[in-house]
Design a protein that fits this description.
Shape: elongated
CATH architecture of the largest domain: 3-Layer(aba) Sandwich
Distance between the termini: 18 Å
Helix content: 25-40%
Largest sheet: 6 strands, parallel
Radius of gyration: 23 Å
Strand content: 5-15%
Number of strands: 8
Strand order of the largest sheet: 5-2-1-6-7-8
CATH class of the largest domain: Alpha Beta
Structural class: alpha/beta
CATH superfamily of the largest domain: Isochorismatase-like
Length: 367
């Protein structure tokens, strides 16, 4: 275990040099001023101590309190920024390595992805209160509405499970397809929530693992509608998933086999989105899958925990661990406004953008 970043030198005043970068549209001159600000000895380069002060200021909350960073993480960032390995960081190294990550942190472009807040998951055939966790899906609606009202997102997307009536995930349809010999559960013995293995069709895959759910969110039925009290905004993105009868699609980005993608990633990239905030139903299924693929698509990804409800408490905890390991963080809705404005800057979601930038400029050098 590493030591906490409390050993990092503190910045002696509360001036935030990143405010000036934001106000002056991230010009190279302002990046140079930022660099000079942390060059405490005015030597024209950064020592590790200077670099620590920079990280302290960059990764801090809206009250300018730094977030702790492990000492080995500081060493790794320093090593990766020091392109020529001379134990100091000059301005060109800083600018190449940190220009994009700083802009993403200080002026993020944020999307709220509202996952499957549909009637069938709230009061219908697959209502969460009938699942093992006994969650009330309706509880997310006022929280999501408050987030929409209080936070100035650049993009809001609504996703829908949008299944044809003969969909592979429906328990009622289990006899419509051949069960693979690899399946531990037969069609006759299968129950709701069981996992079966279907023999795949020749144009898709050899086998398809599928959890069986009650028929839900059938296209153009009331159960597929968004909850009546959920705020709808104009010019939102709408994503319909699970439309192929032979494939399920938990994620708002991909089907479960990753054979086809939705329009969501393209629409977010067209709008230059850097950060994705995920809310909705269900935490351990479609919400977690959407968050996973958001990380894989190089978005800084945040799950707003109090705006989600799930199927199984155990599965929710498993997904939390998995998502944290890949760089997605869980937060309460109260902190989201400061994160979206770039005043609250979390180190956990910065790593992927930093590494992606190094790869783009040909400077990625794993230790």
């Amino acid at each position: 275990m590493g030591t906490k970043g409390s050993s990092m030198p503190s910045t002696p005043d509360i001036y935030d040099p990143f405010d000036s970068l934001r106000r002056k549209n991230f010009s190279d001159d302002e990046y140079e001023n930022c660099f000079r600000y942390f060059d405490f000895q005015k030597q024209g380069f950064w020592t590790r101590e200077d670099f620590c002060r920079f990280l302290n200021a960059l990764f801090s909350n809206e009250k300018r309190k730094p977030y702790p960073i492990l000492s080995e993480q500081i060493d790794q960032y320093f090593h990766e920024t020091d392109f020529n390995q001379d134990k100091i960081i000059d301005f060109n190294e800083f600018l190449q390595a940190w220009k994009k990550p700083i802009k993403c942190a200080v002026r993020p472009v944020s999307a709220l992805v509202i996952v499957d807040v549909q009637n069938d998951f709230i009061s219908g055939s697959l209502a969460l209160h009938s699942c093992p966790a006994n969650h009330e899906g309706e509880e997310v609606v006022p929280i999501i509405n408050q987030v929409i009202r209080n936070v100035n997102f650049d993009v809001i997307a609504y996703t829908y499970d949008w299944h044809p009536s003969n969909h592979i995930s429906f328990y009622e349809n289990r006899h419509l397809r051949k069960i693979s010999s690899k399946s531990r559960v037969s069609a006759a013995a299968a129950r709701v929530h069981d996992k079966v293995i279907f023999a795949g069709s020749s144009n898709l895959t050899d086998t398809i693992e599928q959890i069986l759910w009650p028929a839900h969110c059938v296209q153009n039925t009331p159960g597929a509608d968004l909850h009546r009290d959920l705020i709808r905004i104009q010019n939102a993105v709408h994503v319909y998933k699970g439309t192929n009868p032979e494939l399920d699609s938990y994620s708002a980005f991909w089907d479960n086999m990753k054979l086809s993608k939705t329009s969501l990633d393209d629409q977010l990239k067209e709008r230059f989105v850097t950060d994705v905030y995920v809310v909705g139903l269900a935490t351990d299924v479609c919400v977690a899958s959407t968050a996973t693929h958001a990380v894989e698509n190089n978005y800084r990804t945040v799950l707003i925990e109090d705006a989600c409800r799930g199927v199984s408490e155990h599965a929710i905890e498993v997904k939390r661990i998995e998502l944290n390991q890949i760089g997605c963080i869980f937060v309460h809705s109260d902190v989201v406004p400061a994160m979206v404005t770039g005043e609250d800057r979390r180190p956990e979601i910065a790593r992927a953008i930093f590494v992606e930038n190094l790869k783009t400029i040909g400077r990625h050098r794993p230790r």
